[in-house]
Sequence to fold (181 residues):
Amino acid sequence: MPGSGGGHLVMEKLQPGFAIWLTGLPSSGKTVLAHVLRCLLSYRGIEAQVLDSDELWQKLVPNPTYTNEEQAGFYDELILMAGSLTDEGINVFIAATGQQRVYRQVARSRIACFAEVYVDCLPEVCRSRDTKGFWRRADSGRSLRCRGWEFRMNHPNLPRPSGHRASLGSGCCAPDPPPIG
Fold:
C-alpha cells in the first residue's frame, strides 16, 4: 500500500454518540419533540437520528399482539439499534413510551452516553391529541396494547432537573447545550 508506512492501517476510535429516550404516555408529544430537538441540533451543526417506536413497531412487528414477551423483544431490538448507532458516533433520540422502567434501565446500561426525559402530559391532553386512535381503543376495551386499562406507566426514577438544563452524566460526550433565553 503506497504511503502506508508498512501497510499498517491506523483506526481512529470513534467518539460515541448520545441517546436521549423521550418517554411518556401515548400521544404526549414524544415524536414531535424528538423531531424538534433534532432540527434544533442540526441548526447548530449537530446531527441526530430519531427512532420512533410507532414507526418501528410497524416494520419490526407486522401483526402485533402486544404480549409482554413481544413488547420485551421489541424494546430489546430498539435498544440494540440505538446502541449500535451511538457506538458508531451517531446521536439518537428515542421516541418511545417504554412504559416498563426496566427497558430504559437496560438502555442506560448498554449506551455510554444516555439520558432519559419524561414528557409529562395530562391524560386528558393526550386523549385530545389522539391521532392514532390509541386512547379511543383503550377506552372501548379494543386495544390489545393496553388491554382495558392495564396500561401503567413506570415513571423514571430520576430527580427532576431544575433550571434550564440537566447534566447528561459523567461519561457523556455531548457538547454543552446552547443557552436558552
